[in-house]
Amino acid sequence: MATDKELSDFLKSVEKRAFKRAVYAVRNDDAALDIVQDAMIRLAEKYADRPAAELPLVFQRILHNATMDWFRREKVRAAVMSNLSDFEGPGDDGDFDLLETLHALEDTMGSESAADAVSRAQILQRIDAEIADLPARQREAFLLRYWEEFDVAETATVMGCSQGSVKTHCSRAVHALAKALRSKGITS
Known about the structure:
Layout: H1 4-26, H2 29-46, H3 55-84, H4 98-108, H5 114-133, H6 136-147, H7 152-159, H8 163-183
């Protein structure tokens, strides 16, 4: 049985990667945050009695299921909203605040030079974009294997497929990413 500290430490260690994985899947920061929070709560409420060694696999499976649930809800919501949108007039939310964005960027600046920071940020954006453009199963297999560092069997368990499928998805993802990044001048 995992102790409260082990559970807390595990959740802290996985939160950023889980959020990024959810963002890749749903392409919406707010929805991704909700999905990750729901998955963490579900893990803490229903699976805290599991040994600490089992938490990574259980959490990834919960996260996968929470993401699929989100897609199902969105499908229903889109159908309902498309019918209701006939009654709405045109409107502009204008929620974007440039000053908030600049302050957030200012807080993250470190000791590296501006040129290095810009270059690094641009490369990371290109890599993020290429990962986001992968087909969903390839992206999921790639992130679980190389980001979460799960082995093939663990990845197959989380994805609910065979180990051969995991290997195929990962291979295709790696080749597609390498080709796309080479074409953009990123070699290492």
